[in-house]
Amino acid sequence: MAVACLKSTDISVARFSEHQTLPPAAREASTATAIALAGVEKWYETNDGPVHALAPVDIAVRSGEMMVLLGPSGCGKTTLLRMIGGLIRPSSGAIEIAGRPLWQNGARQGEAVADLGMVFQDANLFPWLTIEDNITLPLALRKAPRPARRAKARDLMQLVGIAGFEKRWPRELSGGMRQRAAIARALSYDPDILLLDEPFGALDAMTRDAMNLELQRIWGETGKTILLVTHSINEAVFLADRVVLLSPRPGRIDTVIDVGFARPRSLEVQATPEFQQIVVALRRRLTEIA
Questions:
Q1: How far is CA 213 from its chain centroid?
Q2: 139 neighbors 152 (Cβ within 8 angstroms)
Q3: Domain 8-101+193-289: CATH class, spelled out
Q4: Where are the domains of the chain?
Q5: Is the distance from CB of 131 to CB of 181 less than 8 angstroms?
Q6: Exposure letters 52-71 (e unless 16+ CB within 10 A, then b)
Q7: Do 116 and 191 form a contact (C-beta atoms < 8 A)?
Q8: What is the pLDDT of residues 35-62, one digit of tens each?
Q9: Measuring CA to CA, which of 25, 58, 69, 161 is 20 to 30 A from 219?
Q10: How far is CA 203 from the centre of its chain?
Q11: Angle between helix 146-160 and 205-222 (nearest 10)
């Protein structure tokens, strides 16, 4: 894997790993690998010929880590996330989830997928189901008893901050609350890994800040491994243990930055010179590779 680090003058600003704090549930597993990619590449066939969406990628996400994929539009961030989620088959290369292959002989492997939960930019709640039933739909599909589903919904709604809205309809909730419900649904069957594709991109700035704090809190309480896609440099630096910057199409890993501000992080950390130096370094690099 060819990874271009930031210039030497910027690396001291970008790396704070000595201050890194994992959530308690993740500390023992911090050296294990949750997601491993080796030579993962994607081509699409179109009417105008093949399109090289993603160049070969090699990367490992540690158990309990929050990694953020950052890059310009069209660089392959979502394609990469969807391949990791088992929604798109890679053209070449191998993906392992907790040491298990995600694909074998062209078939997606159920045991690997069972470790994954996914949240999209649109909450994708079914309008004819209550919030409780939306959250527990994965459990209903697994034939879990209704009392167990209801108890799980109550626990998860408490966790994500929407307790008391069990019988409401999606149309009665704000965008931020619907995204909280979507996160609860992804957690309903207790996957080890959460994949989030621009989950807060459509929210206003204040709600987005609130949801970033909530995601950090949920991560801290559950110890899940989180892989997040975003276009926001501030969001990436605020949330990440590591920021992975992808180049324009065909996407490839250009820069990896360790961000080790102590957790939990408050929004005020964004005003510090250290935070802003990382943001400026990433913005500069994005301009250089555009």
A1: 14
A2: yes
A3: alpha beta
A4: 8-101+193-289, 116-190
A5: yes
A6: ebbbbbebebbbbbbbbbbb
A7: yes
A8: 999 999 999 988 888 999 999 999 999 9
A9: 58
A10: 17
A11: 120
